[in-house]
Amino acid sequence: QPVMAASALEVGGVKISKEDVVRDDPTNNVPDTIFTKLGMQLHRRDQHPLGILKNAIYDYFDANYSNKFEKFEDLCPIVPVIANFDDVLVPADHVSRSYNDTYYVDSQTVLRCHTSAHQAEILRSGHTHFLVTGDVYRRDSIDSTHYPVFHQMEGVRVFSPEDWESSGLDATTYTAQDLKTCLEGLARHLFGAVEMRWVDTYFPFTSPSFELEIFFQEKWLEVLGCGVMEREILKRSGKTENYAWAFGLGLERLAMVLFDIPDIRLFWSSDKRFTSQFTKGQLGVKFKPFSKFPPCYKDVSFWISEAFTENNLCEVVRGIAGDLAEEVQLIDNFTNKKGMTSHCYRITYRSMERSLTDEEINELQSKVREVVQEKLKVVLR
Ligand code: FA5
Ligand code: MG
């Protein structure tokens, strides 16, 4: 278990110091709050819901495939831009590459935004069945199912001509069918009966591509993306005759459904009332919320500038309020006759662990107003 040091740590055999990751220069956009999450590896804690879930997924694969899936769970989350994007065919102008969406350590290096960052490298080293679990990082919105650090598990399975030739199906159909059978089986193994649906989607690295959604807390929740791997990726690793499938599971999302965890921030809680509810190897337990504390809503309105983005606002809010920020939601948006656009955001403050005082919240909100104005170049109304 890597223990967090104040300013240095080791993960995946790589030594990381804070100065390497958080710098005040334009090629770097990693804040302190993100640095502190590096090396925590929640997925490697057997008593943590993410670790319990990971182990249950391992059990499923071990029980169902005689050809064992290789497991990787300690790969360094700091990866080359090439691995995170180019190797999985993400186009040069794709939004996910922007500084607005991804944390850059420098112009050539990112905090991986998905475990797909390791696909190509592991294929190149000759593996054909593998699972990669790790923490991933994204500049993103703030609500109960989004967090800037979360965990994914990547799965890849490569097929050879003899696999599909006897089936009477073409290679793509065969591979897509095997993928869906595998993931539906996994869902049954984890949840028993659960309401779910497949949705067609797009990823640069798979075709066809699908998402699986599960009905949770009155809404459809996207829990994974997957598809038939683009042949180009296989060809580049020397597998010219092969087809493969790949998936990326959102572990927090699956664990929320599995354990009835209502808010994604709870995964980071060290409150005993949370941590003591989970036991190694136990899937069936439902989380019992300790008394729910009241939310406090604060609105902030401003005229936006051209450079304004919601992700930048969310990062400011997280930087100040941390996990006390439960949601940031655009509630009003209009453009006046002069062409100036106004946004009003409602920030919900709530602690998972205690009641917040008015003074405390007012202080946070006034700091948010100050920093938003200064850093995001907006004009408060
Ligand atoms: C991907 O990241 C693809 N790499 C998945 C993939 C792998 C597709 C291999 C095809 C083949 P996406 O951005 O949709 O896809 O994220 C995958 C899952 O991560 C989502 O379904 C969701 O469950 C979870 N997820 C995404 N963003 C967040 C977030 N901010 N907080 C928590 N979970 C998230
Ligand atoms: Mg998605």
UniProtKB/TrEMBL annotation:
Q: Name one GO cellular component term.
A: mitochondrion
**Which EC number applies?**
6.1.1.20
Molecular functions per Gene Ontology: ATP binding; phenylalanine-tRNA ligase activity; tRNA binding
Which residue range or ranges hold the FDX-ACB domain?
291-381
List residues of the Aminoacyl-transfer RNA synthetases class-II family profile domain: 134-289
Give the residues annotated as coiled coil: none
Task: Outline what the protein does.
Answer: Is responsible for the charging of tRNA(Phe) with phenylalanine in mitochondrial translation.
Q: Which family does it belong to?
A: Belongs to the class-II aminoacyl-tRNA synthetase family.
This protein is called what?
A: phenylalanine--tRNA ligase
